[in-house]
Write a structure and sequence with these properties.
about 375 residues; alpha+beta; Aminopeptidase; Alpha-Beta Plaits; about 30% helix; Peptidase_M20_dimer; Peptidase_M20A; ArgE/DapE_CS
């Protein structure tokens, strides 16, 4: 196997379901440090360390980013061990193969190779985060002072090596209802908070009049969690619902929250949980042109694709990398070897050949960046 596929196997075998990313951050830090990067591993609790690594003399480096965590996997539902990174022809199967340890592996190998070659390096920065799947938890804990801002941002999330110039935003909300407890044999004496939120869940699920955007498509809403009650013979006096709304340009967060509250009905409180802005890079931005050049150089399709439905750490990092605090976000391109339709699914896989192709695309990109183009 190639260096990238070897590294991918190691990354997948590290079970980083909302914890334990620090072990992989240390592994990646060693690889980059051995190739001349200056490395730091900021974290917010033990085992949740992240990675910020820089090489080159430029004060405004190109930043490449990915996340080390994954969503859970139930082995009973999988046909193989989710953490074995088994090969099936061109496919590498395992949790995180597409989302997004394949992108991390390809980016790290390309970055290490670039730094190991003597040249006048304009600057390359690698940022690997923890907790992206829970709402960019790790990225939100990074400080602007720990990064070198001013340059563009490449996100190695799954696009099947196609150029994606942005993605939807996320507006996660917590809906709560307070009721009145009673004995389960006399439900009429209580006020069932679970039933109230169940009605809200159905209304939100069935709603089909969300705003839409010509390029980004419609706003969507997903009821991701509904819980409440203590046992069958007690009328629940409290309940909670977590809602995932994906937003598009031109949609005001206050308006979205108001619509959710109206659909939720009386007695339902709506609070923001996580709010991540849309990422939208102008197709005429010079960085988009640079990525297109890199794709053409290795025989890949360079046509920009529609914005992604998912969010990425770019919602946070593009603003932290702005040349001035509160200024225009860094130009951002999402491009990685993973398969977009394999995110979070059973028997998740990525293409080994696309991982190897991504290494070449990233090599071409950072070489062109350092040439000053």
């Amino acid at each position: 196997m190639t260096a990238a596929l070897d590294l991918l196997t190691e990354l997948v075998r590290g079970r980083t379901v909302a914890s334990g990313e620090g072990v992989l951050a240390a592994l990646c830090a060693d690889l980059l440090r051995d190739n001349g990067f200056a490395v730091s591993t900021p974290g917010w609790e033990e085992g949740r360390e992240q990675l910020v690594a820089r090489t080159g003399s430029g004060s405004t480096p190109l930043t490449v980013t990915g996340h080390l965590d994954t969503v859970p996997a139930d082995p009973e539902q999988w046909s193989v061990d989710p953490w074995a990174a088994e090969r099936d022809g061109d496919r590498v199967v395992g949790r995180g193969t597409s989302d997004m340890k394949s992108g991390v592996a390809a980016a790290l190998v390309a970055a290490a190779d670039h730094a190991a070659r003597p040249h006048a390096c304009r600057g390359l920065q690698v940022v690997l985060t923890a907790g992206e799947e829970t709402g960019c938890t790790g990225a939100l804990r990074l400080q602007r002072s720990s990064l070198a801002p001013g340059g563009p941002l490449l996100v190695a999330e799954p696009t099947a090596n196609r150029l994606v110039p942005g993605h939807k935003g996320a507006h996660w909300m917590r809906l709560t209802a307070a009721g009145r407890a009673a004995h389960g044999s006399a439900p009429e004496l209580g006020d069932n908070a679970v039933v109230r939120l169940a009605r809200a869940a159905a209304a939100l699920h069935d709603h089909d009049a969300w705003p839409s955007h010509a390029t980004f498509g419609p706003v969507t809403a997903n009821v991701g969690l509904l819980r409440g009650g203590v046992q069958p013979n007690v009328v629940p006096d409290s309940a909670e619902l977590l809602l995932d709304v994906r937003t598009v340009p031109g949609v005001d967060g206050d308006d979205v929250r108001a619509a959710v509250a109206e659909l939720g009905g009386d007695g339902v409180r709506v609070d923001d949980h996580v709010v991540l802005p849309v990422v939208d890079t102008d197709l005429h931005d010079p960085f988009v042109g640079l990525v297109r050049e890199a794709l053409v150089a290795v025989g890949e399709n360079d046509e920009p694709q529609p914005p992604a439905r998912y969010f990425t750490d770019a919602s946070v990092l593009a603003r932290l990398l702005s040349p001035s605090e509160g200024g225009v976000p860094a130009p951002t391109v999402v491009l990685g070897p993973g398969e977009p339709d394999q995110c979070h699914v059973v028997d998740e896989w990525c293409s080994a050949s696309k991982v190897e192709a991504a290494v070449e695309v990233y090599r071409q990109l950072v070489d062109r960046w350092c040439s000053g183009r």
